[in-house]
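Summary for the funding panel

The consortium committed to producing paired sequence-structure records for every protein in the target list. Below we show the first two records in order, beginning with the earlier of the two.
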Amino acid sequence: GHTRKVAEAIADELGVSVGDIKKRPLPDAEILFLGSGTYGHQPGDEMRYLLRDGTFTGRKVALFATAGSRDGEKLVRDMAEMVTKKGAQVLGDPAAPGKAIMVRYRNVHKEDLEAARTWARNIVGK
């Protein structure tokens, strides 16, 4: 539920709805925000399937991950590499693509959600 909480904060900030990556095809969106928790240094199952089988040609993608350690930063870089190879333009800092949200003490804190909201505003230029 941590990643969902972050996704909901981002969606609320941008005035959009949270989608479900299990539903294909992905929605037509100017910017596609994709997030995953970190499971054994990898994204969750559904995100792995999406990254493997999804079509990203011409899509603008913003990536985020939730993690209990610095694994989130590596996960975001790995996800960025995968979608870039499939034709996506990953938005944000090329040196640190995406946003890693550290989940401390097994909970997403208010400041983490605010950091995600700020990151999302910066991505869309608000």
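The next record, for a separate protein in the list, is shown here:
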Amino acid sequence: MNFDDMKKIWDEQNSETLYAINEDALHRSITGKKKAASKRIDFVERTIMGINGVMAIVLFIDALNDPHYWDFFGSAILAYTVIYIFFTRRRRIKAENTFDNSMLGELDHAIANTQSIVKFAYFMFVGYLLPFSIFYFLKFVVRGAPPEKWVFIMVMFLISIFLVIWDRKAKHIPRKRELEKLRAKLVED
């Protein structure tokens, strides 16, 4: 149930518009939003850590079989992202215990998890896709690569960067604003 969709009641005595709030339905809605935000950030963190961890191992093994510093460097970038995500995840989970066990506390929890997703999307661009784009560009310049490989990698990175930025702007930031509006309405009343 959305806050704006609550039933209006006309108070004829004071000529004021009042709202009847079904607190149980509102609380269930907020709890659902909190759980959904927690599931989203948990899934994203675990998935990226898993993918990057496997790829770091694969690149490292590949580098051992055909020693070249480029593959070691690529493996190190991926390992760094796994470690970074692991520690930010631990800090986020530890902070989850600081929220009140109330409707407003759960809403703050949902806002914090949604903010974590927004920050994570920014990290994916700045701390992951951008360094890897530069890494592959330099690797191709130094070691050489056929034109079709250049085009393929460049197109894949551009699509990835577009999707990360679009996902952040189209989904996560509006979701966070919606939760913040709901919080502002609850606090003002």
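Regarding this second record: The two ends are 17 Å apart (CA to CA). The mean pLDDT is 81.
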